[in-house]
Design brief:
Helix content is 62%, strand content 9%. It is of the alpha+beta class and 170 residues long. It has 2 domains: 56 residues, no CATH class; 68 residues, no CATH class. It is elongated and about 75 Å long. GO terms for molecular function: thioredoxin-disulfide reductase (NADPH) activity.
Amino acid sequence: MAEFGPGGLSAVLLLFMALTLRDIYIGSKVFQEYSNAISQVYPDIRIQGENHPPTPINRCFAQLISYLKLLSILLIISGQNPFSLLSLDTPSAWTWSQNNKIFSCLMAFFICNMMETHFLSTGAFEVTLNDVPIWSKLQSGYIPNIQEMFQILDTHLKMNQVDPMTFTST
């Protein structure tokens, strides 16, 4: 099996850290897709939006998982056995990870990223028309398909005969 030198280990660790930070700060695509579709059908509607933040406890869990991910990758790459420092028997999974460092690091990286994304992604947004809320994922619990969103907008535009100039999403 190929082993990394000290420079290679640092490069791999930096790559994992950069990818982790990128994954944490990438927002949801749902709002962007909906705003593009709505702009095509209703070109006069002004669209604003931002990602709905996760709950504070979910942010804490995601940050904890991120730190544990980096620590586990660092321990795997360095070859240090944390179990001997704690006077515990070394589990066979740790021995396997030391024999398969690259695969173990990739597995730790992707599994932890999946858990971080779960805690950070709300996918939530709310739709208001002229400062009147017309739909909220937070209240309804689901994201409507784009046709349902068009129907909601059409209904509110016809009912209120409003100038479709201000569509906002938060």
